[in-house]
Amino acid sequence: MEGIMVRPEHPFHVKSIDFYFYKGCGEAAVRVVPDLLGSAFVRDEDLMEPVHVLIPEEAGWVNVPVRDGNFLRYPADRFWVLYEHTDASPVLGQDGGDNTLLTSRFYDEQWAQDNSPFKYGAPAHNYMIRVHGNYVCKKTEDWFTDVTVDVGLGPDLHRQRTVWTDIDNDGWDDVLVSTGGYDENGFSVFLNDEGDFTDITGASGVNGFGAGVALPADFDNDGNVDLYLGVNTPEQNTLDYYSTILLGDGAGQFTEVPSNGVDVMFEVNLGGETVMHRPSHVAAAAADYDGDGIVDIYTGNWEIEYPIGTAYPDQLFQGAGDGTFANVSDASGVTANKGAAYGVAWWDYDNDGDQDVATANYGGQFNYLWENQGDGTFVNASSDHNFGVAGDGKGGTSFGHDFGDIDNDGDLDAYESTIQHPRFEGVTGGSTMHLSSGAPDFDFTDVTGTLGIHRDEGEIDGSFAGFDNDGRLDLFLSDLYTGHYGRLLRQNEDGTFTDVT
Description:
The protein starts with a strand and ends with a strand. By secondary structure, it is mostly beta strands. Strands 1, 3, 4, 5, 8, 11 and 12 form a 7-stranded antiparallel β-sheet that branches. 3% of the residues lie in helices and 42% in strands. A hairpin with a 7-residue loop joins strand 35 (432-436) and strand 36 (444-446).
């Protein structure tokens, strides 16, 4: 099977399809099928009746009319047009354009029979398939305007992580962005002056630590925003960077707290050698878990050696109120997390007044729901409440959670963002909307399919927000891969979601 992805910009009435065959003759089966995760196609489901066409020798362009006169697709309805071989020929042509966005793909039956994880391949160039029809109800205006350059944040600012927080106490959120990696000068800091931004990176004091993660909170209770900086340490740690705490002065400048307690080392085996090594802190979240009025920190850590799977244990740091912390990880029980936690978030899932923790675990692992016992310890309650699974009841390659009351019933529901590769189809689960049952059980149900939410291969972060001020939470989904894109899902009156990207 060989085909192209079609993503209409407006509602599109499909009328005919052109194929270019550059050699051979015989029968061609033309199919239109659903999209699979924005990266491949569903093989065993048709959106219209397949059409069988006899191709003469060296036919060139062949036009195939669409028999269904009402074949209408919407902008969110990505679909694929396929040529399915019934014999070795005819051979579908490719144009000169590079297939960098992977919108042309093929499915290799031999790879599938050999149980190869890579069943879908990509040609070097684009298949010569053209879809014809008419747009209807064309969009006439955009709801959002890109002002990145106009406000002073572009055009060449390429970063992975973004933190919004008011570091100078003027009532306007400022922004820190980082490369996300092991980079001495990985941060850029911009002060917000009523919507216009000024780069104060050099004077801010946030660089020089090699950190990729920034977590804002008031760690010393002085009313100013402080920062936890987490280092994403590579396996070959050639530079002595470390995680640390910076205290803010309320004007946009930060100073390191000496001996602050958040720098940890582990004895691990790397390349057959036992060494002391810092963990890769790839996620962090702050909350007052013990109710003493002082902010604490939970960090999620990456694998010791990718892709072997064994991860550094998660860490819990108890705040002292002066910017220093005590490591209570072992005593609290959170080091039992066996997955690499790409995302961590505090929330009170059971409405009992104390903060629990959700970890989004990588590598086909089940996610953890750390229930706060109120005595300084945590118990993983994910299986008890059907929270740990990704879609389809399987473990996932998860990156993060966001929480919100999507059905306005007074308890928090959760969206779990998970990348899901077509090559692991049926092995790992995908992104999931978990609906809470509320008191007394607070069990979660996967309602992703019933709400009209379509998964994508590269989803790494979901965020709830009511962008249209109708009293219902909507959902924005960011994406990791080239050729994919962030999506905005609007919640309808009946609780379902519509892709309005």
